[in-house]
């Protein structure tokens, strides 16, 4: 069995680019603002272990996750000692394990807070809660319009079992709609003044990656960047991040196709004349979006070559007609630079009808992540 991770197809992850992007977030947020890197979904598919290893030296205030399992992995496997915040709702039976591991939690209702408080009391622990305020995202959080109804309830729950650490909100359109950002910000300010009257020491965090570049003046106590760290753009008005990932696949087969030869499921490509095809050892089973079939391209033999036919689970074919010297074992680039050509993450996402986040988190376990 081959142990070379670069034998078939793989992702290369640049630690230097990750750290450079972190430094740019750091600079935008300013010296007095903490950073909470979001490492949910295995650090957007890149590998939580390596991301934490690479960024730990920057001494972030804490790490952001979405699930109990992710928090437990940071505490257990990865030995993280600083803060870990779960920024999504937990089920009742998840509360005790989360508290026992010293994970900070977000709260969106008084019922949820009561359950957390009861679980903390059973464990004789103190729950550290971040109050989620809905200012337009809608999916979680206390309603900004009803602060008078819930702030007293939150304040009353504070005590031996509950430490009200923070108030936060989440922006829905920071990459392309500055008006909505101002609206969410002003809704949040209304809540915050009432909350601060009850708890003067509240920590406040609002901005995701796009927000950090769009409205750095609202960085508050901490920012919660994700996608920008991992090489995803945050709107056309802001500088692009350094590319962090590249995606490569080896040529597994090369053939000449005479006119009329059909290709792939559905036979959606038929050679119109003599063509030369290279079959790459990557498919949607690796996370290459199937939507790129007959649309996307690869870099091979120093040229940009089109993906032809449907992408199948394990294989993808490119048209190398007129490209000389392509051989089995050669390396094709599906994402990243080769010579003067480059295939950008956000361009691939757009072509596939999705966003960079889904491309990154869609890469499957079959693709080794090779860190450099
Ligand atoms: C995922 C997430 C972020 C990070 O967002 P990016 O757009 O990736 O920077 C920040 N805050 C919350 C609550 C999130 O769920």
End-to-end C-alpha gap: 24 Å
Provide the CATH topology of the largest domain: TIM Barrel
Give the overall form. elongated
Strand runs, count = 20
**Architecture of the largest domain in CATH?**
Alpha-Beta Barrel
What is the CATH class name of the largest domain? Alpha Beta
| Annotation field: number of helices | 11
Structural class computed from helices and strand pairing? alpha/beta
Q: What's the rounded overall pLDDT mean?
A: 97
Which superfamily, in CATH terms, is the homologous superfamily of the largest domain?
Answer: Alanine racemase
Low-pLDDT stretches: none
Ligands (ions, cofactors included): pyridoxal-5'-phosphate
Beta content: 15-25%
Q: Gyration radius, to the nearest Å?
A: 24 Å
Biggest β-sheet, characterized?
9 strands, mixed
Strand-helix topology:
Elements: E1 9-13, H1 15-29, E2 34-35, H2 40-44, H3 48-55, E3 62-65, H4 68-75, E4 83-86, H5 92-100, E5 104-107, H6 110-123, E6 127-134, E7 142-143, H7 147-157, E8 162-168, H8 178-198, E9 203-205, H9 209-214, E10 222-223, E11 245-257, E12 262-263, E13 269-270, E14 275-280, E15 297-300, E16 303-308, E17 316-319, E18 331-338, E19 341-343, H10 345-351, H11 356-362, E20 369-371
Parallel strand pairs: 1-20, 2-10, 3-4, 4-5, 5-6, 6-7, 6-8, 8-9
Antiparallel strand pairs: 1-11, 11-14, 11-18, 12-13, 14-17, 15-16, 16-17, 18-19
What would your notes on this structure say?
The protein is of the alpha/beta class. It has 2 domains: 15-230, TIM Barrel, CATH 3.20.20; 245-343, Beta Barrel (Lyase, Ornithine Decarboxylase, Chain A, domain 1). It contains 11 helices and 20 strands. The strands form 4 sheets. Strands 1, 11, 14, 15, 16, 17, 18, 19 and 20 form a 9-stranded mixed sheet that branches. Strand 12 (262-263) and strand 13 (269-270) form a beta hairpin. Helix 6 packs parallel to helix 7 (147-157) and helix 7 crosses helix 8 (178-198). The longest helix is centred in the middle third of the chain and has 21 residues, at 178-198. 44% of the residues are buried.
